[in-house]
Amino acid sequence: MLSLPPLSLYVHVPWCVRKCPYCDFNSHRAPEALPQREYVAALLADLEQDLPLVWGRPVTSVFFGGGTPSLFSGEAIGEFLDGAAARLRFRPDLEVTLETNPGTVEHDRFDAYARAGVNRLSFGIQSFDDGCLTRLGRIHDSAQAERAVKLAQDAGFTNINLDLMYALPGQIAAMALADLERAIALAPAHLSHYQLTLEEGTPFARQPPAGIPEGDTAWDMQEACQARLAQAGFAQYEVSAYAREGRQCAHNLNYWRFGDYLGIGAGAHGKITLPSRDAILRRWKLKHPKTYMDAAGSIARIGGDECLANERRPFDYMLNALRLREGFALSDFEARTGLARESIAATLETLVGRGLLESREGRVRPSDLGWRFLNDAMEAFLP
Question: Is a pLDDT exceeding 70 seen at residue 107?
């Protein structure tokens, strides 16, 4: 029997100063004058359209992703949050995250974000090496990155995440560790540390840059970085997420625990549980910003939706839950998918036998071997 999980709100801002060659997110080059008021109005109309799916349910977190949400002013962010608060039940301890690009923010903007209700910032640093940043196509340099973080701290932000990538073109292990040292010196609460991947359809996939470290080299780099993060007091709680005690990202944890989320904005995706219909609804919105805004207030804004078939639910659940160090409880699998644990018992037994998963006292988690071959474990649940 399906049970209602926690509910989050994802808000997509689809513009960037320049699209990075490795990025496959829905982002578009920003016009000279961003249509901030028009887009906020479209977001609120979009939210109105989805409200019947979540009447009365409390919202635990809001996440502004992109694109580059920090291209928007604090006033525009605040206007949206005020409008959303009038339509949804925000919890008093609501986590509100804004993704920021170090090349697009100034001190007064951080003050405005704080006044708007943002209480967590996520900086897309990627590297503190200027050569690596150039090869990645980033618009900032290392000095701008450090300055942006310090300006945010001066504005009173203490819950800060830094995004770092490794296995970059021309990078060796010493360079990846040097990136970590500079990140740790900034005293963030959270670090996202993930390997560069060549996503289909991106310029990097069509023409891979020279000097990308090979698989074993990248793995050695990852292990060295993980050891340094642990030494610095950052506990790994997800494949690429590390946090000081009590500073895990509530919004992303809800994704990984197969929680629900409204997805609004151009190209946004959402997932909503409907127990009365024994359904898990996935919904996505039109991708192009102009097409999305032109359809404001119309059902046409919905790019599509589907109910997740029973045979797909185990894989979709594992695609998230197995990313967590803590794994998952079998009782949570039943509540979040509406399926009996017996439906996955044979697959679990096989994966435990292969040494990829550990199962004890009603909980399942990846083994040390499973962490290295996590995709194999997840794919075993494909229908």
Answer: no
